[in-house]
Amino acid sequence: MGQIPQLRYSHRRLLPWAALGFSVLWGAVLGVALTGDEYGLAVFGVVGVLLTVALTVLLHRQQSELQSLAETDSLTGLTNHRGFHQALRTKLREAGPRREGVALVVLDLDDFKTINERHGHPFGDRVLQGVGAKLRQSVDRDDIAARTGGEEFALILPGSDADVAQGLAERIRIAIGQLAPAGSELTCSAGVAVYPVDADGAGSLLQLAEGALYWAKRSGKSRTRRFDPDHVRLSGDAPQRSEIERILRHRAIEPVFQPVASLTTGRLLGYEALARFPDSPGRPPSTWFAQANACGLGPQLEAAAIQAALEVSGRPPGTHLAVNVSPSALSTDVVRSVLPGDLSDLVIELTEHEVYVGDSLLADSLADLRERGARIAIDDAGAGYAGLKQVMWVRPDIVKLDLDLTRAIHSDPVRMALVESLVRFARRVGATVCAEGIEEHDDIEVLANLDVPWGQGYALGRPAPPWSRISPPAADTCRNALAQALISSPGGDLPAISAGDRRLEHLAGRLANTRTSSDLYSTLELMAGELNADKVALSRWHPDRHQLQTLAESGDQVQDEFFSIADYPATARVLVDQEATQVMVGDPDADASEVRFLLSQGYGSLLMVPIVLGGESLGIVEAMSEEHRSWARTEINRARIIANQLAAVIPSHFRASAPEGIET
């Protein structure tokens, strides 16, 4: 944060004392003025002191509460990424003069992605909350338990040696294993390092503990490893810092740019700037930024990467440039100094997985950036409950979908459903959605049909020197997807998995183009699929006879069946009131005759929607489910859409008064 926050804090510490002196002085003057003697001076002086003490206590309490919120992970209640680094430096500084030991344990849940994929992110978040509870139960009052990443945790143990820390890590690993959901396994790996035995600084201690963790992962996971220089490379603060300082001094950062495309038209929209380190091509960029953070140079390296990207000229007119900034660095002077005054063609993309909901300093920085024209993007939306909370707090202009959602989405209806809901959310709040990690042309088409407007990934264009274009085959895929979407009546059969409302559109097109009763029968299974029903039936009303005629049922080629609506009051209300209704077995208010009918057919619930044309009821669409359930609003709405289509179809294929049967 630089020196400014420290100065502000020191000023805040002086304020109560200044207020005390002023209150005593003013109380004395007021006392003399009102009473004219020393007694009044003493009384009012004491009152001033008491008021100042009360105000000081209140201010201190508010500051403590704000500080606690800024350093707490909202999902687990543990110390967050920022608070962890601050606490680690503080504990080492306190232990330094006495040369007391401070043990650091870093933990990572093994293959946690599988838990999320199998059980869903909400379940995964509950597991993370359970891990947080286990950690809190396992540590003493002076210890620090933190969540430092998505499924990464850490313990700071003042006064503990390696044996104590390793024993605690093993007990915690066993406790975490008890949180595994039925049919799944939940394991954890851990690494241990100790100050000052292994390292003499916060950055190097963290590096060695993480090195021990990676050694545990390489050894087969589900184990704890104590730092060993024979297995973990020893690198103190000085070598780490000197490497980063060399990069900063020689400006050894090479920006590359990945194009962002419109998935509707295939047109180039902008670029995301990414940093590369050509002097060490074997190390991924993330390790350099992690190393810079460990030695206190994270904001400087981020600022250098941003500056390198902004200095490249010749960007195509009308395109934007997205630069990555961590929330903790965004408010620093060094990052602010490299951003131009006019940010109208820039996207500030918040990276880093720390939870920053409620950070007032970050909120002020975002407001300033927006006033200068910048758009704010947030990364990895949909990666967990905490990530969604950040989306709601930041209110980003651009929501970037986590690549785990977009990868192979064309074959995964669960991913489709989640992306579709995120797109609808973004449209409601006026945000743009960008899908990252698109690697297949089939995924381009599906994402376009889900109304994802922007996309980037290897299928569209790899990160490259300036200024590459969208891959022509990918652009063609975008345009072809739009052309297919413009076809009003798709023919043939749709794939088993289709994006968005494509299947409903397909059904509507089939109904609009029916020519025979056989064509109509062929749509019944599609109707059942759209309504999540086990059976769909079409009935025709004969008002002159007060009878309902069953015309067709999915799975069956029924002959004419006639029912008197006098025997079924709920059905009669649907026809007369022209409003949908549902009947559930077990509902004490349900029509008894309808319930007996459902039980006789082996169903638990029924949805009835009227077919209306020109203000007259023609019949009913009936959807039946074997479950005893209430019908969802989406299913009711879709049933109405289908009924509206059938209103124009039924009179053409079924005679209004044909007691002898169905016309073929």
Structural account:
The protein is an alpha/beta fold and 664 residues long. It contains 24 helices and 19 strands. The strands form three sheets. Strands 6-7-8-9-10-11-12-13 form an eight-stranded mixed beta barrel, surrounded by four helices. It has a six-stranded antiparallel beta sheet with strand order 16-15-14-19-18-17, sandwiched between helices. A hairpin with a 4-residue loop joins strand 14 and strand 15. Residues 1-15 and 655-664 have low confidence and may be disordered.
Strand and helix map with partners:
Layout: H1 4-35, H2 38-70, H3 81-95, E1 102-109, H4 112-119, H5 121-138, E2 144-147, E3 152-158, H6 162-177, E4 188-195, H7 202-218, E5 224-226, H8 237-250, E6 254-262, E7 268-276, H9 285-294, H10 298-310, E8 320-325, H11 327-330, H12 333-336, E9 346-350, H13 360-371, E10 375-381, H14 385-394, E11 398-401, H15 403-406, H16 413-428, E12 432-435, H17 441-449, E13 454-455, H18 472-485, H19 502-512, H20 517-521, H21 524-530, E14 535-542, E15 547-553, E16 561-564, H22 569-577, E17 581-584, H23 592-601, E18 605-613, E19 616-625, H24 633-653
Parallel strand pairs: 4-5, 7-8, 8-9, 9-10, 10-11, 11-12, 12-13
Antiparallel strand pairs: 1-3, 1-4, 2-3, 6-7, 6-13, 14-15, 14-19, 15-16, 17-18, 18-19
Helix pairs in contact: 1-2, 4-5, 5-6, 8-9, 9-10, 17-18, 19-24
Brief characterization of the structure:
The protein is α/β, with parallel strands linked by helices. The chain starts with a helix and ends in an 11-residue tail after the last helix.
